[in-house]
Specification:
Number of helices: 6
Largest sheet: 2 strands, antiparallel
CATH superfamily of one domain: lambda repressor-like DNA-binding domains
Oligomer: single chain
CATH topology of one domain: 434 Repressor (Amino-terminal Domain)
Structural class: mainly alpha
Length: 95
């Protein structure tokens, strides 16, 4: 089981990465808020690790920044967010 300190550090590092990507792209919290439907407070909660956030808000955040992610198991199975988005799009699913 992962202890709370490891989880806290992981959330901190993810938030820092997201904030840096957002600011490097010169996207303000207000613009990201409008693109995601989340409040600016929710965006800062993710970036500053102030509170736990939902996976839904995380996914909205990375989609609004046109980011890509995947999760991979040691055995080679993986979960690809772009692939999931394409499968959920009726036009793409037909391909």
């Amino acid at each position: 089981m992962i202890n709370e300190e490891v989880l806290k550090e992981a959330r901190k590092q993810i938030g820092l990465l997201l904030r840096n990507l957002r600011t490097d792209r010169k996207i303000g919290t207000k613009t990201l808020s409008q693109a995601t439907g989340m409040s600016e407070t929710q965006i800062l909660d993710i970036e500053l690790n102030r509170r736990n956030y939902t996976i839904d808000n995380f996914l909205k955040y990375i989609q609004a920044l046109d980011m890509y992610f995947f999760l991979s198991e040691k055995e080679g199975h993986h979960l690809d967010f772009d692939h999931m988005l394409k499968k959920s799009d009726p036009d793409e699913a037909a391909l």
